UniProtKB/TrEMBL annotation:
<dbReference type="InterPro" id="IPR000834">
    <property type="entry name" value="Peptidase_M14"/>
</dbReference>
<comment type="similarity">
    <text>Belongs to the peptidase M14 family.</text>
</comment>
<dbReference type="GO" id="GO:0006508">
    <property type="term" value="P:proteolysis"/>
</dbReference>
<feature type="domain" description="Peptidase M14">
    <location>
        <begin position="64"/>
        <end position="364"/>
    </location>
</feature>
<dbReference type="GO" id="GO:0008270">
    <property type="term" value="F:zinc ion binding"/>
</dbReference>
<keyword id="KW-0645">Protease</keyword>
<dbReference type="InterPro" id="IPR057246">
    <property type="entry name" value="CARBOXYPEPT_ZN_1"/>
</dbReference>
<dbReference type="GO" id="GO:0005615">
    <property type="term" value="C:extracellular space"/>
</dbReference>
<keyword id="KW-0378">Hydrolase</keyword>
<keyword id="KW-0121">Carboxypeptidase</keyword>
<protein>
    <submittedName>
        <fullName>Carboxypeptidase O-like</fullName>
    </submittedName>
</protein>
<keyword id="KW-0862">Zinc</keyword>
<keyword id="KW-0482">Metalloprotease</keyword>
<dbReference type="GO" id="GO:0004181">
    <property type="term" value="F:metallocarboxypeptidase activity"/>
</dbReference>
<keyword id="KW-0479">Metal-binding</keyword>
<feature type="active site" description="Proton donor/acceptor">
    <location>
        <position position="330"/>
    </location>
</feature>
<dbReference type="Pfam" id="PF00246">
    <property type="entry name" value="Peptidase_M14"/>
</dbReference>
């Protein structure tokens, strides 16, 4: 006897009609469009696990901030509940030995063509709790809407979206200790010799003009850039993993707070991206979509233009290695609450940020998969001279670092 059931009726039918009989079923499960033919008992175990994951995901409160153990558990539930869409990977460990884990969202395409990649990360600065909240919201929106959103489903067949809810796991956990640690920003690596100040600003530790502007070499400062580029395991994990598939990545989005800004490369005031005008245009389109949601204004520009100069950021590093579109989102607000954004603002902040992120992702997707071309070499303007970022940029970064270390003014 063959029984074909829609997903919503599987549990009742399997329990009431099949488990008491020796029946073989063909069950269509609308989770990633997979079909499996197995005995009823195995079906029941798989479906129960998947259903529990879905129920847990649906009951999860996305309008609250969650400690790290709950985020880890949520990641497991999302993966278990959506086996055709979501998988996970551990791509590094923190200084204190915790896993840095991502969720990969994507569907198979029938043509078997190579997929491109979108990178989204959150929680590189520990105190910016709205960032991990957004990454969870972002995943939830995709999981809940891709089956009824033809455009999103198409994008997921062409793209794999890698989402890291928390990069700075140690620091994030530390902010949950008590009120006195709530505004901790850095990682939790041990102090350098002669200091008693822990941690490094991970967003000053990437190999992008490291140590040149907008950083401190004082380990007690919030912008302490570390001993060398990639000295911190969290930054190195991202550089190793992303760097290994840079040619596949179309867009790099890193989520922060606060200020309501969309920042584009570069943080150094004397360097500009070759596709600067395009980065601005796409960023402004995203800001316009964000404003439509709740009327909030987001300003678009480079960090020196609208915030402050900086170096060693993941955004700049991503562009320097050839990822054509790289942005930092600084979410709500503009100073009233800053990094202590109330929970009642989580939903509106995430709704508008999701609209902005989706705008950028849709743009790079359409440009790539409608016979368009994207810039990949990070040709930059350095102090008035055009150079190709590869060797020339590396030499320039190294020279600047050596000069600064030697105490020479530049």
């Amino acid at each position: 006897m063959i029984v074909l059931l829609p997903y919503g009726q599987l549990r009742n039918h399997l329990t009431n009609r099949c488990m008491s009989q020796n029946l073989e079923l063909t069950t269509t499960i609308n989770l990633g469009h997979r079909k499996r033919k197995q005995h009823a008992s195995l079906h029941h175990a798989v479906i129960m696990s998947s259903e529990e994951g879905l129920q847990s995901t649906w009951s999860y409160d996305y309008t609250k901030y969650h400690p790290m153990d709950e985020i880890y558990k949520w990641m497991e539930d999302v993966e278990r509940g959506n086996p055709g869409l979501v998988s996970s990977a551990v791509y590094g460990q923190t200084y204190e030995g915790r896993n840095i884990t991502l969720l990969k969202l994507g569907l198979k395409n029938s043509e078997g063509r190579e997929k491109k990649v979108i990178w989204v990360d959150c929680g590189i600065h520990a105190r910016e709790w709205i960032a991990p909240a957004f990454c969870q919201w972002f995943v939830k929106e995709i999981v809940n809407s891709y089956k009824t959103n033809e455009k999103l489903e198409q994008m997921l067949q062409n793209l794999d979206i890698y989402v890291t809810p928390v990069i700075n796991v140690d620091g994030y956990i530390f902010t949950w200790t008590n009120d006195s640690t709530r505004l901790w920003r850095k990682s939790r690596s041990l102090p350098p010799q002669g200091s008693d100040c822990y941690g490094v600003d991970l967003n000053r530790n990437f190999n992008a003009n490291w140590g040149t502007v907008g950083v401190s070499f004082d380990s007690c400062a919030n912008t302490y850039c570390g001993k060398s580029p990639g000295s911190e395991p969290e930054a190195k994990a991202v550089m190793d993993f992303v760097g290994g598939m840079a040619k596949q990545i179309l867009c790099f989005l890193t989520i922060h707070s606060a200020g309501q800004l969309i920042l584009l490369p570069y943080g150094h005031p004397e360097i500009s991206a070759p596709n600067y005008n395009q980065l601005v245009s796409v960023g402004k389109a995203a800001a316009a979509e964000m404003k439509k949601v709740h009327g909030m204004n987001y300003t678009v520009g480079t960090s020196p233009q609208i915030l402050y100069p900086n170096s060693g950021s993941s955004r700049d590093w991503a562009r320097l290695i050839g990822i054509p579109f790289s942005y930092t989102f600084e979410l709500r607000d503009k100073g009233e609450f800053s990094h202590l954004l109330p929970e009642e603002q989580i939903q509106p902040a995430c709704e508008e940020a999701y609209a902005g992120a989706l705008s950028i992702i849709a743009h790079v997707h359409d440009k790539t998969f409608t016979n368009g071309t994207l810039p990949n070499a990070a040709v930059t303007t350095v102090m008035g001279f055009n150079t190709v970022s590869g060797v020339a940029m590396t030499i320039w970064c190294t020279l600047m670092t050596v000069l600064l270390t030697a105490g020479i003014s530049v």
